[in-house]
Amino acid sequence: xxxxxxxxxxxxxxxxxxxxxxxKSRLESLSQIEVSRISVNPMQPRMEFDAARMAELKQSxxxxxxxxxxxxxxxxxxxxxxxxxxxxxAVMELGYERIPAYIMAVDSExxxxxxxxxxxxxxxxxxxxxxxxxxxRLQQEYxxxxxxxxxxxxxxxxxxxxxxxxxxxxxxxxxxxxxxxxSMGHAKAVGALSSPGQQIRLARKCIxxxxxxxxxxxxxxxxxxxxxxxxFSKKEAKHPGVAALExxxxxxxxxxxxxxxxxxxxxxxxxxxxxxxxxxxxxxxxSIKD
Length: 290
Prior knowledge:
Blueprint: E1 27-34, E2 38-39, H1 51-64, E3 70-75, E4 78-83, H2 85-94, E5 98-104, H3 109-123, H4 128-142, H5 146-153, H6 157-165, H7 171-178, H8 184-190, H9 196-209, H10 213-225, H11 240-253, E6 257-262, E7 265-270, H12 275-287
Parallel strand pairs: 2-4, 3-5
Antiparallel strand pairs: 1-5, 3-4, 6-7
Helix pairs in contact: 1-2, 3-4, 4-6, 5-6, 8-10
């Protein structure tokens, strides 16, 4: 049975940062903890553990050791996981007896949930639907606004809003996101349609034909305007720099955006597909500070 573990270099850069309003003396020093004494966190926001990624993680641990420690709290005669369930599962499957861990003093179940959600969101390796549900849970459990959630997790409000909107999509589309058959960009594109039936039909067609986000956005726009698909000649193709700016604005606003250069100026066209979508975009514009 394996028990030797390597922590790797640059460990200081990986130590979780304690917020300024947190008592830093409550974060214990790094310890080697017996795996058998650690129970999983029942409030873990992660729902899916991809087998291929777990295999990669186990291979990495065998070759390099545990580079980033998990975080735990004392509970009864043992410990309870706060963050790092994939690493803990991998170590257990490898048969390691101990794992490096930070022991944090957490006095309440509410604080445990908050830490677990925020740590997972900040690691940016959750599925979009898992992130969306984590944001929503922070809102519901603590009565927070989207602005307050954004501050807690270090994101802007528009990002939080775009994720939470995913939960309004039909269940079959959310499942496709969980299975990574659709990306966040694809989901935001179909979300611009008001009809759940249209959303589902277009999402399925997108998966079957392997559409890019831009192709899906074009189809959404065509359906919303009730016009047939158009084919553009190479002469009408956008300059790569303009296309890149369009992509950035699409990502930021969560809707179709077109830039039409003309001499030294031009115009920007921002599409909306429902009254709710218009209100969302208006709120985003009004929240922009000088």
